């Protein structure tokens, strides 16, 4: 049984009308996703601190939201740079506006669920950040997805993204090994917070941030009009309350949900949502199994030493990542959309290179589209804004590289991260 969306202008075209139909729910897969999630929740509750099962649930909701809205960072940047469509970037600005509104009191007053210290992602500005964010921008356009996009695309069965993830992990591990050179041997400024480094305080930093988001949104509208950018294609969805579980969500709804979930993550574990530090951990543990002395790396000294020695299930970022994959898997199955896709030589090669660039770039830039861009800007860190600008520059260059791998550079807008 399929569910149709409400009629839209394009629905008079029978081809488009068929594309707006939902597939039947894949009930067996939904059951498998729920069962695995339940078992993982019980295991975490029995073996880890109480924060870990809560974070797994937050990860589920993050993955569910990302998939249902096809909320993209890679595609948002690509749409803007290729055809001038800024709808998704405006959704980013709404997400960030809600996030700074929630983060400001949490960071100012140290609000947390378990009494732990609370800190945002405020990182140095230097050569490491510039190079890392730029090559991450290239990598996400070749790899077919950003950090969050890689996870939720895997949950949706996009086969080539498993290749991207493998080399994402490799790149993150090598980047962790090289990070001391980039941060200690090359020029860098101290971390700059709009709230604590400028005298503005969190109230003033919030106001400046809101003005910046509004300015960026206004600029995207001007660009759209000037370039006569095409609108984003409609996605299949259900009607009424069923839309929560089946079909696409409006971008603005997902933007608000992601901001709220990130704030809840901050209060649960003391830091915002992140993804790629777990990739460096997984890769380092695998390298250690093959005799590599990863414990001697500068990256794994100090507080990080305990992370390397502990179970991956004690790592909150790992738990969040598992939750995102499972949440996206359940969402894709609910929409009848889980299906393994075909791998070609072109997208395989692009995924290898893209994964390596994203993994390495994320370590150099102190995070990815989530940890550096979303989490950094939400934490009032200057490095988050610089990350976004340099990732856009990397995206522009990647538009000329994608055809070399048989990847399209759309003249109209796609909807996949």
TrEMBL record:
Residue ranges spanning the membrane: these are: 28-46, 52-73, 94-115, 160-179, 199-223, 244-264, 319-338, 350-374, 380-401
Supply the alphabetized keyword list: Cell inner membrane, Cell membrane, Membrane, Transmembrane, Transmembrane helix, Transport
As for subcellular location, the record says: Cell inner membrane
Record's bilayer topology term: Multi-pass membrane protein
Annotated Gene Ontology cellular components are:
plasma membrane
Q: Which InterPro entries match?
A: Sulf_transp_TsuA/YedE
> Which family does the UniProt entry place this protein in?
Belongs to the TsuA/YedE (TC 9.B.102) family.
Protein name (database record): YeeE/YedE family protein
**UniProt organism field:** Salinicoccus cyprini
């Amino acid at each position: 049984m399929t569910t149709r969306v409400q009629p839209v202008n394009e629905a008079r075209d029978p081809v488009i009308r068929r594309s707006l139909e939902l597939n039947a729910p894949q009930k067996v897969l939904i059951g498998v996703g729920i069962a695995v999630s339940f078992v993982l929740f019980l295991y975490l509750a029995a073996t880890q601190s109480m924060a870990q099962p809560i974070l797994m649930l937050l990860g589920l909701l993050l993955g569910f939201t990302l998939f249902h809205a096809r909320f993209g960072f890679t595609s948002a940047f690509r749409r803007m740079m290729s055809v001038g469509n800024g709808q998704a970037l405006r959704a980013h600005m709404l997400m960030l506006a809600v996030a700074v509104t929630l983060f400001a009191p949490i960071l100012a007053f140290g609000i947390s669920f378990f009494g732990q210290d609370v800190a945002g992602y405020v990182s140095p500005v230097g050569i490491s950040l510039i190079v890392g964010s730029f090559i991450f921008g290239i990598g996400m356009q070749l790899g077919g997805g950003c950090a969050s996009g890689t996870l939720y695309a895997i949950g949706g069965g996009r086969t080539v993204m498993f290749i991207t993830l493998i080399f994402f992990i490799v790149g993150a591990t090598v980047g962790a090994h090289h990070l001391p050179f980039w941060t200690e041997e090359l020029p860098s400024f101290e971390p700059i917070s709009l709230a604590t480094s400028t005298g503005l305080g969190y109230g003033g930093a919030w106001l400046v941030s809101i003005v910046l988001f509004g300015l960026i949104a206004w600029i995207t509208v001007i660009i759209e009009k000037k370039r006569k950018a095409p609108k984003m294609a409609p996605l299949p969805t259900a009607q009424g309350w069923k839309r929560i579980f089946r079909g696409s969500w409006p971008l603005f709804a997902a933007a608000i949900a992601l901001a709220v979930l990130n704030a809840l993550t901050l209060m649960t574990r003391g830091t915002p949502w992140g993804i790629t530090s777990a990739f460096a951990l997984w890769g380092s543990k695998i390298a250690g199994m093959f005799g590599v002395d990863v414990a001697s790396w500068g990256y794994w000294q100090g507080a990080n030493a305990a992370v390397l020695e502990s179970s991956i299930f004690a790592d909150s970022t790992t738990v969040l990542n598992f939750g995102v994959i499972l949440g996206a898997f359940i969402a894709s199955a609910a929409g009848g959309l889980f299906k393994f896709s075909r791998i070609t030589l072109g997208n395989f090669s692009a995924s290898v290179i893209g994964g390596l660039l994203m993994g390495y770039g994320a370590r150099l830039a102190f995070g990815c589209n989530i940890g550096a861009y979303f989490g950094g800007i939400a934490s009032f860190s200057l490095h988050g804004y610089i990350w976004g600008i340099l990732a856009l520059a990397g995206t522009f260059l990647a538009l000329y590289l994608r055809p070399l791998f048989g990847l399209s550079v759309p003249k109209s807008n796609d909807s996949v991260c």
